User: What shape does this take?
Amino acid sequence: MCSFLVLAALAGCSKPSSPSNKILLWHWMTDRNDTFQKFAQEYQKETGIEVTIQLFAPSDSYSQKIIAAAQANVLPDIYGILDKKSIVADFIKAGLVADLTDAMSADGGAWENSLFEKALSDRSFTSGNIYDIKPGIYGVPIDVTNIQMIYNKKLLNKAGIKSPPQTFDEFIKDAQALKRVGITPFVAGWGELWLLDCFTSNYAFNIMGEEKIFKTFRGEVKYTDPDWIKVFSIFTELRDKGVLIDGIVTKGNKYAEQDFALERAAFAFNGSWCVNVYHDMNPGLDYGVIPPPPISTAFPLKIWGSSGSSFVVNGSSPNKDKAIAFLKWLTAKEQQVVLARETYNLPSNKEALSVISPLLEEFAKGMDQSTHPNIWPLNEDPSVSEAFDKGIQDIIIGEKTPQQVAQDVQKAKDLQMSKGNH
Amino acid sequence: MCRRPKTSRCPKGIIKMNQKFKGAAVIKDNFQNFFFVLPAFAIFCIFYIYPFYKMINLSFYDWRGIGPMHFIGLANYKELMGDNLWWDSIWHAGYITLIALTFQNALAFALALACDREIRMKRFYRVVFFIAPVLSEVVVGLIWNWILNPEMQNGQYIGLLNHFLYATGFPQLVHDWLGDPRTALTTIAIVNAWKGFGWGFIILLAGLQTIDKQLYEAAKIDGAGAWKTFTNITVPMMLPVILVVVILTILGCMQVFVLILTLVNEGLVNHTDVPVTRIFSAMQNTNRFGYACSEAVIFGTILVCVSFITKKLSDKVKQA
Assistant: This one.
């Protein structure tokens, strides 16, 4: 009996191989689930195609589920890959992601043109890419996002600060003023390494420019270079001037968001999704958005921004065309307006920008100066990135100097180079 | 079957036929037994043996979880031997286990002894001491995150511990308990002990209740004091139970994971890494599935060795 049940269960796991009027979508966005479910019902009424939306959260578990499903070849028709571009490339090579270029460029490129170019580039591959993927568009952005500095207007006023800082020096001065009146200047969820990585790379772009960063990734510039020492030294200054909230290196972003929403800190470093989060936690919160104040005039400061969430279509799905049609419908202006209104996220459809709130509009302005590791021509090896991020944590807790961290990161880099990576 | 008495002669043909029938019956019996065991065996093979084999197999590959796998022999193991962060993580788990074996189990034993006596509200205490272990590790992590919060708002400490220390006249003890490398691991170990002592308490209490009360009465008549009774009756009688608690504590604490994740996220640099967080990080952050598998194989081997040594020790103690 048990064997029968196991066999039945295994049989139940296998993929349907013939086309049907049903589409299965897996996602991880708890805040958008209700709206997606409504869309599914609406889409069925309009087209007769039944879309089953299944939520798997949190995103870490979702990511593991996708990898496991890919190995077992039981991926749904539509899903998201929350991973580095190199992993997306592996999915494409395995035939698990459909090429959407033809669908995007149909009707004179109407679909492609309606979406933010930078959001599309997140899941696109250009000719000559290092991953050896056929150039094309492989994903559909559902919304766009970028990460900037948020400031609490009331707390700044309390410290006598009339306008938000425009330079890093002004930011440090404002932090001192805030400390004098007993307000914690800055909070961020730097217990999550990617967010720390994001803040650091903003200033790396500002101090040395993108070409030098990529040269470092290629091993042509060392992490012990004075410019990298300058980048690491930012954290020494932030620590020594008492700018950072206590316990910042173990703080998850959820806690950091709570701190800012409850007015425990005047500045935060967070993504555009925070508009939704802060609205839920403290609807009366009065705040504004600025890019992180630049420390140098040598190069423009770049912020991380791209598609916030994007979906891909399963390349081996028998319902591929129906899945593409649904994603086209989901990113059309009407649906994007509803998503932006109900979930406070930046829409991926440019035409839907007209309905967003003033706060989201401030975030939207940042898209012009945005970049993202997923659109860089190459990325640092994950082991080196880990040494880099943990090294910065070491600086913040006062265990190492910028020079020591630079040497440690370079050592990790040398090890990777000796293995032939990059 | 030939039912004739042994003394009488049984024709050879009948003996052969009997043996044939016997053989068939044995095969039938075996087949029936195998048939009944088959479902459990199949489940065991699919969900235990195969993943176990696959994990060992993957540890010889360089693989990112998807895409081509490259056979690299023992390279992952070679790298692991020189990976100081990995061996540090083993030490961290060992430290957490040591705190649990001493502090946690001593507390559990003391409370079990107290609750084994005729005291008022003994049932209430039993329930209270068992609340922590039934809570999810995530919940415990969240509760302790609030207790240990180092931040201030409007001149007041938000965290209960720092607030209490400040309010009771010990401002010099106020501290970022999880954010300071000198205190982070010990703080985690104490929270882990708080979460786990209830299990030891229940098992030890059950053990205490199996000791024959007549032994205590006899000792009392012989004039033995409380300490002598404890060392000569309670401890020897409880040794098998104590060893069970020790083995469970070692296996449970060496694999601590969720509590660390909820208390310090991805860790305070590398000061709070334990083997399972390293394995998770190799898979999640660096997509090195082969390396993660080699870590899991080594860690599993260490746990098996520790359990084996503890079992041998327990057998020796029982014999003594």
About this structure: Residues 193-218 of chain A form the longest helix (26 residues). The first strand of chain A starts at residue 22 and ends at 27. The two ends of chain A are 54 Å apart (CA to CA).
